[in-house]
Amino acid sequence: MAWLLLVITLPAVGVLMYLLIGERRLGKTWMDRAIAMQPQLLLWAQDIPASTLVDPGVLSTGAESVSRLATGSAGLPLMGGHRLQLLTDSSSIMRALIADIDAARGSVHLEFYIWSSGGFVDDLVAALVRAAQRGVPCSTLMDSLGSRSFFKSEALGRLRDAGVNIVEILPVNPLRALFVRFDLRDHRKIAVIDRRIAYTGSMNIADPRFFKQDAGVGEWVDAMVRIEGPAAWILESVSLSLTALQTGTPFAPPPPPELAPAGDSHVQIFPSGPQSSTQHIEQLLVAALYAARREIVLTTPYFIPSETLLTALRSAAIRGVRVILIVPEKIDSTLVRYASNAYVEDLLEVGITILRFRAGLLHTKSMVVDEEITIFGTVNLDLRSFELNFEVSMLTYDPAFAATARAMQSQYESKSQALQLARWRGRPDWRRRLENAVQVLSPLL
Fold first, then answer.
1. Beta carbons of 395 and 70 less than 8 angstroms apart
2. What one-character DSSP code corresponds to residue 386?
3. How far apart are CA 225 and CA 198, in angstroms?
4. Per-residue pLDDT reduced to its tens digit, 381-409
5. Quick one: which of 117, 144, 304, 404 has the most CB atoms within 10 Å?
């Protein structure tokens, strides 16, 4: 419908845009590799050591259904023996990551959407150079579009000169845009050190004191989780599968390391991407919403829900579940802001609390259900994350970690302002009409 409207109103522009971004075209080479790799991934997942596995039957009924859906969709099981540490500010995240890289003895593997020089990113580059110079194999995946400025930087040359293996994911150039969709991106954030420590979450390799300071939205506010346990080498293998898709090299991750239990947290890794015709991550989020009995708290920078997700949120509120949605007051896309506003009244009228964070661009992507199920990672609540981007999520079924994540969300709440239904309905008619018009085009954003 959105495409038809665009082509009818702006024929030349609409046809050109459809040719460029109308279909999820990863390219024949990529798709052939993805099809060939699928049975290899399933065989690899079947060989995950039984000693690391946890029977989902030990979880509550709602959590068990979510876990079984995750396994059925992505093929990765519930695993035990993890220690989780939630890091809620960029400086502490970077200090911890640099310390782990400096202590690395076996390997360092990074995959991030954005690399941007300056500030503590220069310290990270120096840590990678030190690791490579002492003989530790280091590799990085960088999205071609998200990290385009970094590919022209002096820092990239330092990494290459030190022997760091750099893989440019989904290269962007005018010729390639004729055959593949250029806005299908690698949006993942993964760091793995020695195959036993991993990081994932919302933060890119960018210092918020310098990154996009001309956008008028303040500093980006992020969080990452530091994981010790078998999920670390699972995340590494997920990243290596994307390396194989880009380079054409075989998918052959090293055998699982023998790790003593680092803690008692249950963790499940859930990768998603445009190579699949099914929106698995949306199904998972919706299942978690329908599993809720008491409370759902979500944080996301970009909120343009599908009809299915919107219905699940409204249904939860109608059946008496407390639903809190925390979004930034200012975001770096005018069109996304107007499209997001079009859903506010539908949510407020069923009693959902919408809070607008006022202390920067809240970039953390998190969902806590009944202080038991936590979904944390790179996925925004929009169709781009559901359909177009390579994403990764960490699922935990750990009340202690859920309480920690909920405390982080409460800190966001304290820096936010609630929207009021009566006042929202009183906004100017021109804004309402503009929001509704942009909402129609929201699948294209």
1. yes
2. I
3. 8
4. 998 899 889 999 999 999 999 999 999 99
5. 304
Q: What pLDDT sits at residue 436? A: 86
**The tokens of 391 are what?**
């994403």
Asked about 194 being catalytic, the answer comes back as: yes
Catalytic position from the list 100, 143, 186, 194? 194
d(CA 320, CA 295) in angstroms, rounded, equals 9
Pick the catalytic residue: 189, 222, 266, 398? 189
Identify whether 363 is a catalytic site residue: yes
CB 68 within 8 A of CB 56: yes
**Cβ atoms of 302 and 275 closer than 8 Å:** no
163 token code pair: 């022997």
| Per-residue pLDDT reduced to its tens digit, 66-81 | 999 999 998 899 999 9
- Mean pLDDT for the chain overall: 93
3-state class (DSSP) for residue 169? strand
Q: For the segment 405-432, what is each residue's pLDDT rounded down to a tens digit?
A: 999 999 999 999 999 999 999 999 999 9
Mark whether 370 is an active-site residue: yes
Q: Where are the beta strands (DSSP E) in 57-103?
A: 79-87
Residue type, 109: H
Concatenated DSSP letters of 368-380: EETTTEEEEES--
Amino acid type, 358: R
Is the pTM higher than 0.90? yes
User: Is 266 tagged catalytic?
Assistant: no
**Active site includes 89?**
no
Does the active-site annotation cover 189?
Answer: yes
Q: What's the alpha-carbon Rg for the chain, to the nearest Å?
A: 21
CB atoms within 10 A of CB 301: 25
